[in-house]
């Protein structure tokens, strides 16, 4: 259960090496989260992440989790929930893929879709059922601005995120009134720390073209242009983590990071397709 200050006492992360997820976990531990489970494929990076969070004072254990092995999700995640209630589940796994290669190799494209969408559907329904059974909890899903208006340059990745986003919204509607809170997080381009080489950091860079398109919309509307690296539409793992923690406290359903993306993407969604094709993205 959450403590008297509204902070979750337990956290399950699917995608335990995600830079955004680890930044979120650090913030939550500072707010009295004491139990953390990091789920992911076994690796030195996963063990290192667990050791770092343990040093901050949390009870941390790793969980073997493979997004592509949907048949194992119910058993694997069921064991975690059987140990005790989980206040917050954070979905932070995904792959960027390679658009050029994936168009030529359909099985590679399927892997992107299965990891980003099918794997999340399977794990999401398992976690949602467990949260509903315990009568409380939050499910937080990291989506992407790339799924808001899928572009030619990365439509395989973008379509997988669009599907994930739609699924999460529908799941939130299905769980409304059950005591379970579902929140979609839509970051723009995430500038990773120089030394970070996580799957999520690589994935979020795929949104760069969409943000460039958003910049074109802003320019057309009279906004001053700025380099991508300095754009107010880019963000950092710490900023996303802060937005997640704030969204949990407010029980938000949708979180944009940065917040200015909401208005920009609202405009971009309504750009006619013939014009959208000509945008420099």
UniProtKB/TrEMBL annotation:
Gene3D superfamilies xref list: NAD(P)-binding Rossmann-like Domain
Keywords for this protein: Oxidoreductase
Pfam families, sorted: adh_short
Chain segments annotated as coiled-coil in the UniProt record: none
InterPro entries referenced in this protein's UniProt entry, alphabetically: NAD(P)-bd_dom_sf (IPR036291), Sc_DH/Rdtase_CS (IPR020904), SDR_fam (IPR002347)
Recorded family membership: Belongs to the short-chain dehydrogenases/reductases (SDR) family.
Protein name, as recorded: Short-chain dehydrogenase
């Amino acid at each position: 259960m959450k403590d008297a200050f509204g902070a979750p006492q337990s956290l399950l992360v699917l995608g335990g090496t995600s830079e955004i997820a680890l930044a979120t976990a650090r913030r939550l531990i500072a707010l009295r989260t004491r139990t953390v489970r990091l789920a992911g494929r076994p690796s030195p990076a996963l063990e290192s992440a667990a050791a770092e969070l343990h040093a901050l004072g949390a009870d941390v254990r790793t969980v073997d989790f493979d997004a592509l092995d949907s048949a194992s999700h119910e058993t694997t995640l069921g064991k975690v929930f059987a140990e005790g209630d989980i206040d917050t589940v954070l979905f932070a796994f995904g792959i960027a893929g390679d658009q050029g290669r994936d168009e030529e190799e359909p099985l590679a494209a399927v892997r992107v879709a299965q990891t980003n969408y099918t794997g999340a559907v399977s794990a999401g329904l398992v976690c949602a059922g467990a949260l509903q059974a315990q009568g409380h909890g939050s499910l937080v899903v990291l989506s992407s601005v790339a799924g808001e208006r899928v572009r030619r340059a990365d439509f395989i990745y973008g379509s997988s995120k669009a599907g994930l986003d739609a699924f999460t919204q529908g799941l939130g509607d299905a769980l409304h009134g059950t005591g379970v809170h579902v929140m979609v997080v839509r970051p723009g381009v995430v500038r990773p720390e120089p030394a970070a080489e996580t799957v999520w950091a690589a994935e979020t860079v795929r949104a760069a073209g969409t943000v460039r398109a958003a910049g074109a919309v802003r320019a057309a509307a009279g906004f001053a242009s700025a380099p991508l690296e300095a754009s107010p539409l880019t963000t950092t793992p710490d900023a996303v983590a802060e937005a997640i923690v704030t969204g949990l406290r407010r029980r938000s359903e949708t979180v944009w990071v940065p917040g200015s993306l909401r208005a920009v993407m609202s405009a971009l969604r309504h750009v006619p397709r013939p014009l959208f094709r000509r945008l420099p993205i």
